Amino acid sequence: MQEISRDAGSFDSLMEHLRSWYRQRDETLGSWLALRTELWLYGLRDPELLPVLADRERRSRAALAQALEQGFAARSVAPPAPVEFLALVLYSLGDGLSIQRVLSPEDSDIDTVANAIELMMRSWGALSRNPAPAEEASRPSPGRPTTKGRTPSIEKPEKNP
Questions:
Q1: Which of 9, 65, 70, 153 is the most exposed, having the fewest neighbouring CB atoms within 10 Å of its CB?
Q2: Rounded average pLDDT over 34-55
Q3: Helix (H, G, I), strand (E, B), or coil: what is residue 1?
């Protein structure tokens, strides 16, 4: 992601670099998802590994957030929410669409993830040009702590379930 965003001068260039990256990854998508799933399952069985995996995921999302910032800047628009949250949304969307690509390749093509990211980026850019009414702007941002100071907790798995 850092290389993609560094080499892209415009939004269209950024999207083309992203498309190229996803096309290369598609060649080994099943193996990549299998390895990632195995690591995640191993981490669920050994909670000492979870922080290591979580750090890797955070670094990947941080690189994506940086690319998003550049994409918004290239289009001269402000992001409609914190870029860290938008990166989490895109990262998760990419995971889900990649799983669907492996399970049902006839329902998606090699550019599905990049097309979804481009659609989201264009939609978010349009939102930035048409801000929400003032009463909506005062609502807490998605993925941010609530007024109680924390986001909902996630149940921790037992070791070696």
A1: 153
A2: 92
A3: coil
